[in-house]
Design goal:
It is a single chain. With 285 residues, this protein is α/β, with parallel strands linked by helices. The protein has one domain: 4-Layer Sandwich (Metallo-beta-lactamase, Chain A). Helices cover 33% and strands 25% of the residues. β2 and β3 form a beta hairpin. The protein binds zinc ion. The site of zinc ion has 7 residues, from α3.
């Protein structure tokens, strides 16, 4: 056998083998949620039962790419939707690299924007790659025929019509797009950096969920007694960087979750958190 032929044959076999492995690993018709370990920030990859990718926030740097290349099969170069909860760098910076390496089909956020240089780079990229960009507000939703639904429950449309207002850092957190994801009986609340004050105002719409992505990296005001009574989550996930300068997650927040017997998963301790559901049952992998 000629050497060149042998090398080509081995490489082709390896590629087919990788394809088969990844096909059965990723195309299983289930919902996969990855709360990616991106350090101090949020980056959440949702792989839908129909194999679409939705990225909610993208972390503070290019580390989101590690998460995408680990959990999106190598032949899939499209991300169907990017949703930015609010315009803070620990949530949007990674989108710059995502747009460079993947075809991001649409980008959604609230109307606030930012005057930082990093934000300008992202906006230039969105324009250059002609990514469709839209604002989201309560009442908007994404859905698939198989009963997966992402319903926006905050902010309301009045908020998005107020442009160029002077808004403080904590108010920008309050502008976070809050999404209730449901797939059959399985429900997850994704709250960006919105804290208990905002979530309490909309808690009538959200009762007895399964998983709660805690707002604002588990800050001091992330949770409250009444919010936890209402949401009654089984698992709370905190996306947070190791030894971060903000002291997140706050001890009182961890104590409150403990008091309500909510299990806590943290990206700084547990790495990327992978949750799977078939619409009836769900589990942490
Ligand atoms: Zn944040």
């Amino acid at each position: 056998m000629k050497k060149g032929f042998f090398i080509v044959f081995t490489a082709s076999f390896a590629l087919v083998f990788l394809f088969v492995i990844q096909y059965f690993q990723y195309e299983d018709g289930k919902l996969h949620i990855y709360i990616c370990d991106v350090g101090q920030g949020d980056g959440i990859l949702i792989k839908t039962p129909n194999s679409a990718e939705i990225l909610i926030d993208s972390g503070p740097d290019k580390s989101i790419i590690n998460c995408l290349s680990s959990y999106v099969p190598f032949w899939d170069r499209e991300v169907e939707a990017g949703i930015l909860s609010h315009p803070h760098a620990d949530h949007f910076t990674g989108f710059i690299d995502v747009i460079k390496r993947y075809k991001l089909k649409s980008f959604y956020t609230n109307s606030l924007g930012s005057d930082t240089q990093t934000w300008k780079i992202l906006q230039d990229q969105i324009a250059e790659k002609r990514v469709s960009a839209k604002y989201l507000h309560s009442g908007n939703y994404f859905s698939e025929k198989n009963s997966l639904r992402l319903k926006v429950i905050w902010p309301n449309s009045d908020f998005n019509s107020i442009k160029d207002q002077k808004i403080s850092y904590s108010d920008i957190n309050s502008s976070s797009i809050v999404i209730l994801l449901s797939y059959g009986k399985f429900e997850v609340l994704l709250s960006g950096d919105a804290e208990s004050q905002i979530l309490s105002a909309i808690q009538n719409e959200i009762k007895d969920i399964d998983v709660f992505k805690v707002g604002h990296h588990g800050s001091k005001d992330a949770l409250s007694d009444s919010l936890l009574y209402s949401l009654n989550p089984e698992v709370a996930v905190i996306s947070v960087g190791e030894n971060n300068k903000f002291g997140h997650p706050h001890k009182s927040t961890l104590d409150l979750a403990k008091k309500h017997k909510v299990s806590i998963l943290r990206t700084d301790k547990d790495g990327t958190i992978h949750i799977v559901s078939d619409g009836k049952k769900w589990w942490v992998k």
